Amino acid sequence: MPKSLFTATVSGERQRLLWRAVALLIAALIVAPLAVLLTRIGEADTHLLRHLLDHVLPRVVGSTLLLTTLVVASTAVLGTGLAWLVSRYRFPGRNLFNWALLLPMALPAYVLAFVVVGLLDFAGPLQTALRALLGPDLRLPPVRSVGGAAVVLSLSLYPYVYMLCRSAFDSQGQRAMEAARCLGLTRRQAFWRIALPMSRPWLAAGLLLVVMETLADFGTVSVFNVDTFTTAIYKSWFGLFSLGTAAQLASLLLLIGFGIAVTENRLRDRAGYWSTGRGRTEPGVALSGPRAALATATCLGVLLAAFLLPLAQLLAWAVAGWGGAEGTAMDTTSLRAAGRTLSLGLAAAALVVATALLLAYARRESPGRLTDAATRLATLGYAIPGAVLAVGVFVALSLTDRALPALAGVDWRIGGTLVAILFAYLARFLAVGFGPVEAGMARIGRSLDDATRVLGAGSWRRLLSVHLPLLAPSLFAAAALVLVDVMKEMPITLMTRPFGWDTLAVRIFELTSEGQWEAAALPSLALVATGLLPLVLLNRRAQSHAGPSITESPTPSGPSASTPNLSGAAPARPSPT
Amino acid sequence: MSRHHPAQQTLRAFALALTLLCTAPAAASDKLVVYSARIEALIKPLFEAYTRETGIEIQYVTDKEGALVERLKAEGAKTPADLLITTDAGNLWQAAQEGVLRAVESATLDKAVPANLRDPRKQWYGLSIRARTLFFNTKMAKATDLSTYEDLASPKWRGKLCLRSSKKVYNQSLVAMLISEHGEARAEQIVRGWVANLATEPFADDTRMLEAVAAGQCAVGIANTYYYGRLMEKRPDLPLAIFWANQDDGGVHVNVSGAGVTRQAKNPAQAQKLLEWLASPKAQNLFADVNLEFPVNPTVAADPAVKAWGNFKASPINVVEAGRLQATAVRLMDRAGYR
User: Fold this and answer.
1) Fewer beta carbons below 10 Å: N end or C end of chain A?
2) Which tens digits make up the pLDDT trace of B12-45?
3) Tell me, what CATH number does B84's domain have?
4) How far is B330 from chain A (nearest CA, A)?
């Protein structure tokens, strides 16, 4: 790669090497549990694998593909559509929906699942009432099916895509759209040809998260009794007593996750996504009449289905169970669990966002195959089911614990402490934090870096004084995503938490594993309540348009390269090559 | 520019914090650590009672059984756990297979726990019994229509059977016992018959399944007795009744929730005392009644609500078979298409 004038100095070279080392270190840290897990493949029983291939995997792969396709399509449409609606138009309730459409993030998918099944299944209130009205032989489509699971997962996961797309639309600047309108495109054409392609890193990050969440999900699909690849992994481990076979299947998921991420990356490798002009100054197109009503109805409908109605049912169950013995026993411990949940979530969010920033920065400062590979590896923890990753983390930490006396002469135990659980969260959720941070980085043009180098700033100074303020919205978005994910997380928390550190998700699991869904309503409400305030606050920071605008000319040799940056009106370079 | 980068100071602070978080104190001799697959709500009152009686503090962590066994294996000699409690025999067998439990010689336990409800190699002991039997909608079927688990495979029940998912360990143990009794070929026939008779997709849990039976989606289902007890406590008007299966032929399938002392326990003697206490009349009611299960100690009477379901003949097969044949049962259910 040709060295530009500004990196020919020795310290520049050293800094690049340092950043490469940082990326490799982070990747090694994350990959360690995965590697440990892969070593268990040696224990895999070929007879079991044969059995799974013959009787389980064909059907399971089909269901998984169907489920993933349905969920990805729905979340893409919902997330992008709603983000565009809220970003570019004005209609009654728009300011409310702007942040309210994120609320379903605070509700775990497995809670939504048992609420939906409880409400809509044969023995639930809706069908019972319908049978009373229309006769006892009424048979409706089955709720506990791939379709049902797809609906619940879509309603639960669309906020990821929504939040990221909204950040994309908000940050891409007015100039591109104005130029497009000048050149004769209608608003709809401008959306498809300019706005959407320019949001590609964000959209891709969101959809990648959705795919990995769906593949690794266990709680929701088991409520619907849908068999996916992950349920086959659990069956191998818990039913067939073979962690080796489970690890073998999980490694396939890792390959898929890796493959998708690499392909997506390669596809957008040479495109530029720099922001053009200030953030949204135009207040948005006002809708009127039926179109405004449609916009409001759509937003309200989604919010009702994904959040308000389930919340109402949870409230009803909580109130009904309040007087009983279970109710009072739960509410005192629920408060402590809420505190634990929040503190773990905040600590994990800080750790993950900091690491993601380091990794994204390393990638930017020291581009090349090695750092690319390191980045992809470091985000793999999200692709496999949480319980399986937890075992990897646990075994890796236990190995470290056993080696500590020999290595460092101390007899400590890291496993079972807060370090263990935070490390496990890092390994799993780095992907969630990395997406928004990397996309935010993509918005910062190279010429800004060069300018700071000319002025004599090193990497650290550049990061702290220049990039950090510009990245702040992305960092807060990443923190919000990680926070809610960690608070809802269950299998890793179960396995790595220190004594007495029960979170609300653990409480919900214990109750639902015993079929006490109604009793789980109170901790579920507590979980939503605990997540709401941080979510809203972080969202507010994520939407702030902090710092000066950044404009970019297409190439260094382009005609507009000579004009100073801050007010340039260069058109965007939208489409990928 | 300062010599000490803020980054360096942050790193130093981080390292210090790490050392503070890392240290785990050694286990005191008046403290026991328990790994439990039985949920906190069920074991907390029990352990509090033990602490009040003996002054020994009990620290516990709950998790799924498979994860607990892996954790014990990974921790090896550094494990803090003294006792492992699970909710079914299959996982106790698995724990013994993986070598994380130790044999316990105790005349008290041998007397308190019947032979078919404890490990022949003395590595674990059942502490409460859970029966898995038939439940039917009183408006759609009569007790005289029912007889055995095997009979549910006959064509007369077409479209009238509801089952819980095969992924839950209770059904895996049930099928394992069927294999133990009838052999694999006949057991597979029975399970295929069940699948053909299903009225709807298998359910994620027993309570939802029982509600479906009561709502009339099907006429009969197989569930654990305590789910029935809890449901009827909440909604006594449901048209749902219990039927003890196989009374003329083998007996009702039973499973145990039990415990074993871990191989690397730091306080094995205290752990054994705790185990003996759990099987003693003082604790048996605390252990079993809160979850409407049957106490394993034959000298202890069950909760009155539980006794109201009537006496029944339980299968005398040793529950260790549930573990030994679990993987076989899972493969059989996959072949038969029982999801």
Assistant:
1) N
2) 555 555 555 544 444 445 799 999 999 998 999 9
3) 3.40.190.10
4) 6
